[in-house]
Amino acid sequence: MKKHWHYFLIVFLLPVIVILWWWGLFSSARIETGERGDYYYAYLEAEGPYSKLTSKQGEVLFTLKQQGIEAGAQITLILSDPRTTPYKQLQARTGYLIAKDKMPAAPLKIDTIPLRKVVIAEIKAHPLFAYGKAYSALLDYSEQHNTTLHLPTLEIVEASVLHVEMPLEDSLPVAKTGWSNGS
User: Fold this and answer.
1) Given a cut of 70, is residue 70 above it in pLDDT?
2) How far is Cα 64 from Cα 110, in angstroms, rounded to an integer?
3) Which of 41, 43, 155, 180 places its Cα 20 to 30 Å from the Cα of 104?
4) How deeply is 137 buried, as exposed, middle or buried, from its count of CB atoms within 10 A (0-12, 13-18, 19+)?
5) Are 97 and 75 in contact, with CB atoms under 8 Å apart?
């Protein structure tokens, strides 16, 4: 048994480590502050576990294609904190960025997120790891700056890169009053 231990490492453990590295297990989220926004997007409301948002995104993409509207980056506006909200009551908007001259029909809704000051966590990793690492970095940033995680956060996925934008405290009035609803 002792003679075959190194074969186990080479045949099993090493490939698993390489796959996990490829998926971004050892990646870290990069944090920066800046102004982001002026996003125009088509979406559907979602309630319940955030793990089920993928099916709602699929509905939006299918409907956009039916209407002949090209979908841009995937976008999700997280409205509820899963640390303090029961998972069945979590709320979000999920959909895709679209061209500003497009007006999708029902059941899709449209909205605009204005330019605002945000903290951005960015990471290229498999979704299994990316969301946890991005939000962990935002929580660390909040703790270092003696503040809390501010909602709503905005998640944009493009080319396998997750960007999570958290509004800075001085932009909270925008988040509290809501953004223009063009629906």
Assistant:
1) yes
2) 12
3) 155
4) buried
5) yes
Instruction: Tell me how far apart the alpha carbons of residues 140 and 28 are, in angstroms, rounded to a whole number.
Output: 12
Burial class (CB in 10 A: 0-12, 13-18, 19+), 162: buried
What is the phi/psi pair of residue 124, to 5°?
-105, 110
CA 147 to each of CA 30, 59, 136, 168, 169: distance values in angstroms, whole numbers, following the listed order? 19, 36, 14, 10, 8
Q: Which residue, among 135, 118, 117, 116, has the nearest Cα to 127 in the 3D structure?
A: 135
Cα–Cα distance between 172 and 8 in angstroms, integer?
54
- Quick one: pLDDT at residue 182? 41
What is the chain's mean pLDDT, rounded? 86
Distance of CA 62 to the CA centre of its chain: 20
Q: In angstroms, what CA-CA distances link 54 with 46, 94, 96, 127, 172?
A: 10, 9, 12, 11, 28
pLDDT value at position 36?
94
